[in-house]
Amino acid sequence: MKDFVARWHLSAWDTGLMTATLELGSLIGALTAGVLTDKYSRRQSIVAACIVFCIGSALQFGAQNPGHLILGRGIGGLGVGALSMLSPLYMAEISPPEVRGSLMALEQFAIVLGAVLGFWTGFFTRDIEGSASWRIPLGIQLFPGFLLGFGCLALPPSPRLLVAQGRVDEALRALAKLRLRTSAESATDPLLQIEMLEMQVEAALVEQTAGSDGAHSVAKTGTLHAELHAWGRLFEPKLIRRTLIGVVMMVFQQWSGINALLYYGPTLMRSLGLQGDSVTLMSAGGIGIVQFFAVLPAIVFIDRLGRRPLLRWGSTTMALAHLLIALLVQRYSADWPAHAAAAWVSVACVYTFTAAYGMSYGPIGWILPSEVFPLSARSKGVALSTASNWVNNFLIGLLTPVFMERSPSGTFLVFASACALGYLWSTYFVPETANVSLEEMDAVFGSSAGREDVALKHQIEEDLGLHDLVRQWAREGTTTSGGSRDRRAD
Asked: How far is CA 88 from each of CA 81, 106, 238, 370, rounded to the nearest angstrom?
C-alpha cells in the first residue's frame, strides 16, 4: 500500500517490531486469560477480550503515527491471545463429546479462512487513494470483534466451570439449555444426568490431583501454592517428556517458516524475483489459499495415516522446498529478470511447502499437545504449549525482516534447517498417538500418570453414584425392552 509506505518510512526493525508486538501481546493475553477465566467465567472473559481487541483495532484504524500502530497491535494482541485460549476452551466445554473433535477441526479451518480473507481484503483496497487503502482493512476487523462479543451474551455459561465452582444446579440448567432440554426434562433425562455426573467427576479429579499430591496436600485448591504445584507437575519425571513434546512441537511449527510467509509474503516473493505489485501480492495470497485447501484432507486422513508419518513426510518436503529456494536465490538473485523460470520454480516450492505444512505441522501442532497429557495435567500442558507457540511466533515476526535484509537465501536455509531437525525429532522422540487410549499412552511414555488418574477417576465415579445411575438406566432399559416383547407376543 503506497500511502502506508510513504507515510511512515519504516525500517526493517520497525516492521519487525510492529509485527512482533501482536505476538507478544497475544502471549501475555493467553497467560492472563488462563487465570481470569477460572475466577470469573468463560463468556465474560470472551466479551472482555473482544472489547480489548476492538480497542486495539480502533487505535490501528485511527493511527496518526507508528507508535499508535504498534500500541494498537499490542493491545489487539492481548485480545487475540486471550481469545486463542478462551474460544477453544469454551467450545470444548459446551460441546457434546461426539462432535467436539469436529468443532475443533472447524476452528482451525476458520482460522485459515480468516487469514485468506484478511489478505485479499488488503489486496483489493491497496489502490484506493490516501490512507483509506490501509485504514479500511484495519477497520473491518472491528466487525467480527463486535459480532463475537455481542453473540456471546446470548450463549449459556460453561456448565463445567459452574460445576468446578460448586454451582451444580446452575450447571444443570445451562447443560439443559445446551442440549435443548426443558427444566422439567433436566431432572429426569438419564443422559443429561450422566453427563452432569461426568462433569462432577472431572472437576473432583482435577481438584484432588492438584491439591492432594504428597507434600503438597496441605495446599488449598485455588491458592498460589496449589497453582504453582499444578504447573510444576508438568516438569516432574513422569510428565516431562510429554511436556517437551507439546512445547517443541510448537517450536518447529513456527520455525518451519509458515508465519514468515504469511506475514511477509510480498517481501519474500520480491526476493524470489517476481516483479510488479499485482504479481507479487497474488503469488503471496496464493499461500493462504493453498493452506486453506491443504487442511481439508488432513481433517479426513489424520487419524488413518497417523501423526508421525505425516510429521516426517511434512518435515522432509518442507526442508527440501526451503533448500531448493535458498539455492535458487543464492544462484540467480543478482539477475532475476534473466531467469524468470527459476523465479517461478521458487514460487512453486513455496506453494509445495505450504501444502505440506497444511497437512502436517499445521493441524498436528494443535492436536498433539491435547493427546499426550493425562486428564489432570491436560489444561496446563496445552496452555504451556500454546505459550510456546506465541513466543516463537513473536520471534519469527521480529527477526524475519532482519534476516531477509541480511540474506534472503540464508533465511530460507534457517527454515530448511529447522524442518530437517523437525524430521529427526519426529522420528526419534515423538511416539505415535493416533487412536491411542489414555491407558495405552502410559505404555507409550513409560509412565504411570494416566493409570493413576484412571484409578482415582473410577473411585470418584463410585462415590458420586455415576455407576449406580448407569446400572439403573440399563435395568430400566432392559425392563422396557422385555415388556415391549411381551406385548408383541400377546
From this structure: 12, 11, 27, 12
Residues 248 and 374 in one domain: yes
Structural domain contains residue 354: yes
Does 102 lie in the same domain as 222?
Answer: no
- Is position 204 within any domain? no
Looking up residue 101, the CATH number of its domain turns out to be 1.20.1250.20
3-class secondary structure, 423 = helix
- Please indicate, yes or no, whether residues 131 and 255 belong to a single structural domain of this protein: no
Residue 477 placed within a domain:
no
pTM: 0.73
Distance spanning both ends of the chain, measured CA to CA: 82
Rounded distance, CA 18 to CA 209, Å? 42
Both 151 and 244 in one domain: the answer is no
Domain ends where: 412, 430, 447? 447
Which residue from 320, 309, 312 is spatially nearest to 353, judged by alpha carbons? 320
Tell me the C-alpha distance between 16 and 4, whole Å. Answer: 15
Which residue range forms the structural domain that includes residue 308?
A: 212-447
Structural domain count of the chain? 2
How far apart CA 24 and CA 390 sit, in angstroms, is 7
132-140 and 42-61 are packed helices; what angle lies between their axes, rounded to 10 degrees? 170
* Torsion region of 437: left, alpha or beta (phi above 0 gives left; psi -120 to 50 gives alpha): beta
Residues 112 and 225 in one domain: no
Per-residue pLDDT at 59:
93
> Does 366 share its domain with 218?
yes
Q: Residue 73: enclosing H or E segment and its boundaries?
A: helix 66-94
Q: How many CB atoms lie within 10 A of CB 344?
A: 14
Instruction: Identify whether 196 is part of a domain.
Output: no
Burial class from Cβ neighbours inside 10 Å (0-12, 13-18, 19+) for residue 205 reads buried
Q: Give ∠ CA 29-50-262 in degrees, rounded to 5.
A: 65
* pLDDT tens per residue, range 120-143: 888 888 888 888 888 999 999 999
Give dist(CA 227, CA 211) in Å, integer.
9
Residues of the chain with confidence (pLDDT) below 70: 1, 34-35, 38, 97-105, 186, 205-224, 226-227, 263-268, 270-284, 375-376, 379, 435-443, 446-454, 456-457, 461, 463-467, 469-470, 472-490
pLDDT tens digits along 443-482: 677 665 566 666 766 777 676 666 676 676 666 665 555 5
327 and 443 share a domain?
A: yes
Quick one: CA dihedral 421, 424, 429, 435, positive or negative? Answer: positive
DSSP 247: H
CA dist., res. 465 & res. 201, Å (int) = 10
CB 163 within 8 A of CB 203: yes
